[in-house]
Amino acid sequence: xxxxxxxxxxxxxxxxxxxxxxxxxxxxxxxxxxxxxxxxxxxxxxxxxxxxxxxxxxxxxxxxxxxxxxxxxxxxxxxxxxxxxxxxxxxxxxxxxxxxxxxxxxxxxxxxxxxxxxxxxxxxxxxxxxxxxxxxxxxxxxxxxxxxxxxxxxxxxxxxxxxxxxxxxxxxxxxxxxxxxxxxxxxxxxxxxxxxxxxxxxxxxxxxxxxxxxxxxxxxxxxxxxxxxxxxxxxxxxxxxxxxx
Length: 245
Known about the structure:
Structural class: alpha+beta
Strand order of the largest sheet: 8-7-6-12-11-10-3-13
Number of strands: 13
Largest sheet: 8 strands, mixed
Helix content: 25-40%
Strand content: 25-35%
Radius of gyration: 27 Å
Order of helices and strands: HEEHEEEEEEHEEEEHE
Number of domains: 2
């Protein structure tokens, strides 16, 4: 951005030195860091025309200085998604998933739901988390076996319920062991989280994931997604994508 501002200042200075006639062509310096652009300006002699032309050239250069950073920010996330979604991967370290039955407030029961428990961080290692729902907080544990007991306690019957029922019934912790093959189905970005969902080979990528891996960043993700390489490296510690031939 500082280079763009320098280029903008140079353009303003050049335009102010023109008294009667603007040059037919203005090209921003290549050292400005902006996209090279040719601005063709009619050779008007009126002061009012010069003012409008100066403003137009300055506005165009300013827009071009801002656009590349914005486009790069979108492309960084898009490129990360494209590099992973739909790819066959091999599990390198065991992935854990909680299988549970969930009963909603209207009494509807959804059986056999799955929630991936692995959370990877760049500084605090690995921990296991069941995402909170129905107004409850996330449940975090250092080992996956403790998640089942904690979920059972937190989502058990409540004294204020008109009818006593268990909101979530944990069934089992399923393991996808080393060597298991999965397909990356979807990637979701949140404020400080990248969540990667997997389905089994042959299943529709739009199906509910059978497991997930969550990368939790200690700070909000930057708009340019400058963390991309680190997130990619963390993900590869647990799954290895098949080489593209």
